């Protein structure tokens, strides 16, 4: 066996070891039991009343939030709990809906969005934001920290905040302040009001 063949064999063995290790880490992570649900709060300003809603075809557990008073455009989007930003950017295509052109062309996907890892295999997602998020991947965010502004980017018909809570990668019923939202399926249109306790 010549030196070139030995080197190739050694490199191949090294790559195999790295891939096996990574696969093992992924399997262990998948098998790890999720931790307790964080005390998520509504991702909007303290004391404000917002309408939580869903509709047929929206997807189970997805919640859209609209303020009950005032304009939606540009309202602060807050972290529901503390954690680490794992995604910050564009999901799909932005489209052309703005405050000046609210009926502009729709985009697709979630538009400007953020995903936060809260530990214990719990994550939250925030979609359709107005402009590039105020946080970047790797940032540590505190509960209630502003991460963006409400908008209508992506596949959105009107300015609102689309919010999801996930455990081990699967969507779960959204809870706020230790209480379930009551939005579990998209079989029918649902609307209810809640007051945000996402307070300093």
Task: Give, in order, the helices and strands.
Answer: HEEEEEEEEEEEEE
Number of domains: 1
Q: What is the CATH superfamily?
A: Glucose Permease (Domain IIA)
Percent of residues in beta strands: 35-45%
Which architecture per CATH? Distorted Sandwich
Runs with pLDDT <50, length 5+? none
Domain M23ase beta-sheet core: 74-172
Transmembrane segments: 6-28
Region (Disordered): 90-111
Pfam families: Peptidase_M23
Helix and strand topology:
Layout: H1 3-31, E1 49-54, E2 63-67, E3 76-78, E4 83-93, E5 108-119, E6 122-129, E7 140-141, E8 146-149, E9 161-167, E10 170-172, E11 175-176, E12 179-180, E13 190-195
Antiparallel strand pairs: 1-2, 1-13, 2-9, 3-8, 4-5, 4-7, 5-6, 6-9, 9-10, 11-12
């Amino acid at each position: 066996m010549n030196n070139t063949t030995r080197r190739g064999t050694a490199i191949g063995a090294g790559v195999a070891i790295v891939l096996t290790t990574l696969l093992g880490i992924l399997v262990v992570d998948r098998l790890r039991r999720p931790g307790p649900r964080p005390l998520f709060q509504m991702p909007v300003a303290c004391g404000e009343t917002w309408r939580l809603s869903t509709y047929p075809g929206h997807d189970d557990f997805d919640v859209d939030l609209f303020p009950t008073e005032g304009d939606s455009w540009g309202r602060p989007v807050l972290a529901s709990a503390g954690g680490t930003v794992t995604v910050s950017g564009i999901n799909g295509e932005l489209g052309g809906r703005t405050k000046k052109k609210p009926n502009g062309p729709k985009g697709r996907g979630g538009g400007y969005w953020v995903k936060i890892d809260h530990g214990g295999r719990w994550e939250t997602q925030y979609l359709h934001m107005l402009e590039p998020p105020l946080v970047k991947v790797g940032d540590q965010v505190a509960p209630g920290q502003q991460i963006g502004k409400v908008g209508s980017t992506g596949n959105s018909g009107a300015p609102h905040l689309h919010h999801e809570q996930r455990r081990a990668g699967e969507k779960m019923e959204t809870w706020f302040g230790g209480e379930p939202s009551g939005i579990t399926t998209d079989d029918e249109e649902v609307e209810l009001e809640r007051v945000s306790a996402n307070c300093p």
